[in-house]
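Step 1: inspect the first sequence and its tokens.
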Amino acid sequence: MTATLAIGTYRDTDRAALESDLGATMLDGLDALDSLDEDARAAVTTVAYAGHAPFGGAVMDKLPNLGLIANFGVGYDAIDVGAATERGVRVTNTPDVLNDDVADLAVALLLMQTRQLAQSEAHLRAGKWALQGAFPLTRKISGGRVGILGLGRIGREIADRLAAFKMEIHYWSRSEKDTPGWTHHPDPVALAEAVDYLVVAVVGGTETAGIVSAEVIEALGTNGVIVNISRGTTIDEEAMIDALRNGRLAGAGLDVFLNEPTVDPRFFAMENVAIQPHVGSATIETRAAMGQLQRDNVAAFLDGKDLLTPVN
């Protein structure tokens, strides 16, 4: 048995690199650990993880000599970092290399929703332009007021892009940031009250679960639009659906959902929602960079070197 397990769904190129560069043994999911005998599990010191199933203390205990969990992705909320720290297990993720793609998609979702791009394309493809006339007028975002909920790496990239749209930038973060005159707000409700558009860019996990509450949604108001590229858990999804269906929220652009990939089917019937299947980082170039960074962290650990992107 090798020292490295690669657990989850990997592209063929990443699978080949994990096997050739690290001698990794591939497993489809965490449940497959039970198929390994005691000696094989004891030999494992590193796990390259690409999954959303909870990786908690009980799972870690199946690998008594585990020293590293290298996550594929910037979000590591599936991994119980506290349990890992208690067991002396290091955790890494793959930040920065995906910032541009996720920020680009956030802007695209805002434009898709406000300009009704999917609907106007469908109008054209169905021949309705010639038969029924022009598509109805939509909504301008340039010059509007946008709030960034979470001005971390990705949030900053989103804000920089929207500033180029001449938008007035507001933000909430745990602490004030050094910005070119952007307006900080003390809490998410105050942020929502001040803007037309709210882009959710906080990290996932228990600390941010439901941070976009019914109160935040109400504060955003009937002309408000929510864009979420963080995690489905960060929004009170039931409150958002109710507001969207009853005219208390103008629209939403969503790349993430609760219980994905099983998405609440009510979203599919909503014309005021632009939806994508969690593709924020899903470009060839970025996924390759994420895979390389994950493998580099594993290699650094095995070589006794400093981890490149430690979480704990």
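Step 2: inspect the second sequence and its tokens, then contrast the two.
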Amino acid sequence: MLDVVLYAHTMTEIAGTRWVITGAAGNIGSALRSALLDREAVLVSTDVRSMTPLGPQEVVTSTDLADLAALVELFDGAHGVIHLGGIPDEADFHDLAEVNIVGTYHVLEAARRAGVARVVYASSNRLTGFYPSGAHIAPHVPPRPDGFYGVSKVAGEALCRLYADKFGISTISLRIGSYEQQPGSAREQRTWLSPADAVRAFIAAMTTTEHTAVFYAVSANTEGWWDLDAGTAVGFTPQDDASQWGETQHIDPHMPQGGVYATPAYSTDRMRE
């Protein structure tokens, strides 16, 4: 176990290292794959959706998060895993538990069995979406998820911490903001994560010398809600600001940061009958 921890502390370069990306066909996954290939990483990209390799240094495959044995085989020889896979929004809790919670357990357990040094976990700002808009939130505050999706991310972060503490795997969790080309609402003016800053956040998570960490992956928005110090500590320095897209709109400071995601209907409408 100690060898794994020490090895994780040496992963400060990307060129020539082999990374597995789950959920690689999504918006963030596609952008990250391109950025990492530009930096000469060797990629194994997997998703339940079909993909086309973006270059000669990438292999694409279809692997279900439910298949632990297949994940162990896929992770063999990898320096690290970037876990983007899962249901990306509110859904019936049973589905979220099966895909987001058990699936994340499978990723971490496969990493342990395969001897992978680091897992970078795509968490979410929705984990703290019930804090009021007038609050300034740091990663160490107690979770207040705005829905069952946020609950699944609480569980995912807890699993990451367990595997870091008990099994010596380096785990870095990014609470991803609103990933968009530009902010499209008053809420996104506070939560916006630009594509360029998203790449910066994941590069920092892949290369930091910290053994375990949680930080908000969000741009340097003038009216942002979340503390950026934890990101700075792992080497993430966002460069973009939502204010460049126009004047910031007012938000009621008592309204949950999750906005519509925090409304009862956003959850109940997605429950199975």
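Step 3: confirm your contrast with the notes below.
The domain at 2-268 is CATH 3.40.50.720 (Rossmann fold). Confidence is low (pLDDT under 50) at residues 1-10.
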